[in-house]
Amino acid sequence: MMSRLALSGMAVRGRGALVNVCSGSELQPLPLMAVYAATKVYVRSLTLAIREEYASHGIYVQHLSPLFIATKMNAFSPRLERGGLLVPDASTYARHAVAALGRVHDTTGYWLHGIQYFFIKVAPEWMRIKIGMYMNQDFRKEHFESVRSKAH
Predict the structure, then answer these.
(1) How much is the pTM?
(2) How many degrees, rounded to 5, is the angle at CA 61 between CA 58 and CA 65?
(3) Has residue 78 got a pLDDT over 80?
(4) Pick the CATH number of 2-151 from 3.40.50.2300, 3.40.50.720, 1.10.10.10, 3.10.50.40
């Protein structure tokens, strides 16, 4: 609905930009996060379709697919929340992502995420699913250990 509202005005003006934020979770089905990953696949598909529909209206439609970013959304993992080279903080990520607007239609928004994304795609899907299961089990374990340590 938001895209429809914004796109109609942009189409009338003959210019504009729409950025849909997905996630690296779109790269494979994710056990223990199945609905989240499925919604990201949907957003990617929607973005590519809208891009084609509005291409002749001067509207730039970008698919932004970050990997992990050190934000409160990742509070389930103290490791992710702390961040690091492969897990930038929100301001670092945003600075890089904004610089990509108008330059590339499909991006992770952060150069190191782009390298990771490439290597993730090289692995067969069945392997990515297995790795996703392992990672999500590890994140759950880390979360519950963190909750237990805070309770004592």
Answers:
(1) 0.86
(2) 165
(3) no
(4) 3.40.50.720
Q: How far is C-alpha 4 from the geometric centre of its chain's CA atoms?
A: 21
Instruction: Give me the pLDDT at residue 145, please.
Output: 86
pLDDT of residue 152 exceeding 80: no
**pLDDT tens digits for range 18-36:** 999 999 999 999 999 999 9
Q: Is 42 a known active-site residue? A: no
Residues with Cβ < 8 Å from 70, sequence gap 6 or more? 80, 81, 82, 83, 84, 87, 88, 89, 90
Q: Closest Cα partner for 117 from 43, 44, 65?
A: 65
**Which position among 36, 60, 117, 134 bears the catalytic label?**
36
